[in-house]
Write a structure and sequence with these properties.
This is Protein kinase domain-containing protein. Pfam families: Pkinase (PF00069). It comes from Arcella intermedia. Keywords: ATP-binding, Nucleotide-binding. By secondary structure, the chain is mainly α. The protein has one domain: Transferase(Phosphotransferase) domain 1 (Transferase(Phosphotransferase), domain 1, Orthogonal Bundle), CATH 1.10.510.10. Helix content is 44%, strand content 0%. It contains seven helices and no strands. Helix 2 packs antiparallel against helix 4.
Length: 161
């Protein structure tokens, strides 16, 4: 959720679960699901870092990676890894997204390490530009009914609109 003051509140659609140890079950929305989850490989908390990267792509571009694909085609693309990065973002933003989307989950940064990324440590002026970019992307999301319908009809979640 994007608040009017520019702050972001992450919300859950009911698929969240506590992951203390490595898991192998597959759960999630295709556009945010890490390759190791899709491929039923062992995974840990860093699959959430991948999801954060995908969600961040949506925040800055107005659409998730592989938005043009249906659920199944998206799963195949995500299983291969490396969703395309938006072209119209700063180098720091691209660096942040690239770190989130490292294919081998064991090489992805932890959430603690990611909090130290320069993109998240920007000066106030740069922060305002990034916030504006996020708000513009979020406004595009709100206007895209087709995107909401795609998520609503996804096999992994059901939303009543």
């Amino acid at each position: 959720m994007f608040r009017q003051d520019g702050n972001i509140k992450l919300i859950d659609f009911g698929t969240a679960t506590r992951v203390d140890n490595c898991r192998r079950s597959t759960v999630g929305t295709p556009w945010y699901c890490a390759p190791e989850v899709i491929n039923s490989e062992e995974y840990g908390n860093r699959c959430d870092i991948w999801s954060l990267g995908c969600f961040s792509i949506e925040l800055v571009s107005g659409k998730p990676p592989f938005d043009e694909l249906n659920d199944i085609a998206c799963l195949f693309k995500m299983a291969e890894g490396k969703p395309p990065l938006p072209n119209d973002v700063t180098p720091l933003c691209k660096s942040f997204l690239s770190d989130c989307l490292i294919l081998n989950w064991k090489n992805r940064p932890t959430s603690s390490k990611l909090l130290g990324h320069p993109f998240l440590k920007m000066e106030e002026a740069q922060e305002e530009v990034a916030r504006k970019q996020l708000m513009e992307g979020t406004q595009r999301i709100a206007l895209e009914k087709a995107h909401l319908d795609k998520i609503k009809n996804s096999a992994s979640i059901k939303i009543k609109l």
